[in-house]
Design goal:
507 residues
């Protein structure tokens, strides 16, 4: 392409307003330079100084217009002005001395060389500034993405990031066909995404496939994982090479972040799987022990009575039968808790809520737990008014029995256990209070975890676990909450609430 073609191409790209501005700026600078020339001629300054003024003016015009065309035009005009004011015959365009033709030619050549160097320097300076901005942009992108782990945020942030630095409509479409950013208006959207990810190449406008599309699609994937595609609406235009490189470099940063998140999730999944396996084995061992112990006691006691019935006195028989009964009750409570917890974990509809009088519920609890008190005492504080609770009767009784049974088993001798309750603005609050030694503070945050005491029984004084876990599950199924703390009596207090709202029924 020759100079004339380049000039035509340049002026086609410029709008009329910009051409007018460049022309006015050039004319003003030339007028100022010619005025200075006229002043220098009047002061009889040497001719080469005038040429220096013209050279400086040409450089200024090139800097302002950023186009060699204006530099060439101003060079020709300055040569004519120099001929008009500085060569004999003065104030005409005739040249008597042929040496001036050489001077004019050298001046134009020098002007072109200087102009080219100035424009090239401007271009490089602009490129350096743009590169610095892009490097800073990529650093900012990496910094922000490394601090975030949500894929939705990451994709949305990247779309906004590209919008900030590129003048295109940009979207990201992931492998689940979810779009982030502006909706993609193309019939081949999913096909282009699939092809780009499978072949790991850019497709769309200015490529060898889907060339008629108005989009350019960049794959976002690593060697092992396909994530998404970056869709850029280009219409009938082409994206400059430097912008394509900028896009690809930032996609590499994005892929590194996504790979890191995937690796972290895989590591976490492996860790969880290992922990689950360890926990499962621990639970199975503990369940086996907790089932085997009462069954062994029942079996040995029954066998002793059957084999030596006539040799055992009535008092001993009663004692053995009492132990068998207590072990059977413990086993029944354990199995009921286990079954209820399994059903609640599976979100089965267990609750059958009705308005129930609290006094009747606590009387039922006392009757069922009385035989297990041994050397402990149980006091139920009565309310002066008749209070009703909106609850599943069977499950609420189970909660209170578990809490009292927990206090019986894991407190010191002669402990006093108190159950009280009160009406609140939202429902009924229950408290099970004892003075039997309290809970080890280091276990306080874990006592309501599933199978906690089964997996860890170092705290013989108060090893809580399955019973408290089912308590929490039942209370939360009612829409309430439960907590425990060490009280001022030297023991522990378990408090929970059952809301009245009927809309809190089984969800």
């Amino acid at each position: 392409m020759n100079f004339i073609d380049k000039a035509k191409s340049y002026f086609k790209k410029l709008n009329k307003k910009q051409i007018l501005i460049n022309a006015i700026v050039s004319l003003l600078i030339m007028a100022l330079a010619i005025a200075m020339q006229y002043a220098l001629v009047a002061m009889k300054v040497r001719e080469e100084n005038v040429l220096l003024v013209f050279t400086i003016a040409i450089i200024i015009i090139l800097i302002e217009t950023k186009n060699i065309v204006y530099g060439i035009a101003s060079s020709i005009i300055f040569v004519l002005a120099f001929n008009f004011f500085n060569t004999e015959p003065y104030f005409t365009f005739k040249v008597n001395d042929p040496n001036y033709y050489i001077t004019f030619a050298i001046f134009i050549i020098v002007s072109l060389i200087v102009g080219t160097l100035v424009l090239d320097l401007q271009k490089k300076n602009k490129a350096a500034v743009e590169n610095a901005k892009k490097v800073q942009a990529m650093y900012d992108l990496s910094s922000r993405l490394l601090d975030n782990h949500d894929k939705t945020f990451i994709y949305s942030f990247v779309v906004n990031f590209f919008h900030k630095y590129l003048a295109y409509d940009i979207s990201i479409r992931d492998v689940n066909l979810k779009t982030y950013g502006k909706e993609i208006n193309s019939e081949d959207t999913d096909e282009m995404l699939k092809y780009a990810l499978e072949k790991n190449i850019t497709v769309g406008r200015d490529t060898f496939v889907y060339t008629k599309s108005n989009y350019l699609v960049f794959p976002i994937r690593s060697k092992k994982q396909k994530y998404a595609g970056l869709f850029i609406y280009v219409g009938d235009n082409s994206i400059p090479t430097d912008e394509i490189e900028f896009i690809k470099k930032n996609i590499l940063h994005l892929v590194v972040v996504l790979d890191r998140e995937l690796a972290l999730k895989e590591q976490e999944s492996i860790k969880v799987a290992i922990e689950k396996e360890k926990f499962k084995n621990s639970i199975l061992r503990s369940l086996s022990h907790d089932l085997k112990t009462p069954l062994t006691s029942i079996k040995s006691g029954s066998d002793l009575i059957l084999s030596s019935y006539d040799q055992i006195d009535d008092a001993s028989k009663k004692e053995i039968l009492t132990d068998i009964y207590n072990d059977a009750c413990d086993l029944n409570v354990f199995i009921v808790n286990l079954l209820n917890m399994t059903k609640l974990d599976k979100n089965k509809k267990l609750l059958n809520r009705k308005k129930e009088p609290v006094d009747d519920i606590l009387a039922d609890v006392y009757q069922k737990i009385e035989r297990n008190l041994a050397d402990k005492t149980l006091e139920i504080k009565q309310s002066e008014e008749l209070i009703f609770v909106y609850t599943d009767l069977t499950l609420l009784v189970q909660v209170i029995i578990n809490l009292v049974d927990n206090a019986i088993k894991h407190t010191r001798p002669n402990t006093k256990i108190v159950i009280d309750y009160k009406k609140t603005d939202t429902g009924v609050e229950f408290n099970v209070i004892d003075n039997g030694g309290g809970i080890n503070p280091k276990y306080m945050d874990k006592i309501f975890e599933d199978f906690y005491s089964l997996a860890l029984k170092q705290d013989k004084k108060r090893s809580t676990g399955l019973g408290l876990s089912i308590c929490r599950a039942i209370v939360e199924a009612h829409g309430g909450n439960i907590k425990a703390y060490n009280n001022d009596l030297g023991g522990a207090t378990f408090t929970f609430n059952i809301p009245d709202e009927e809309d809190r029924d089984e969800q």
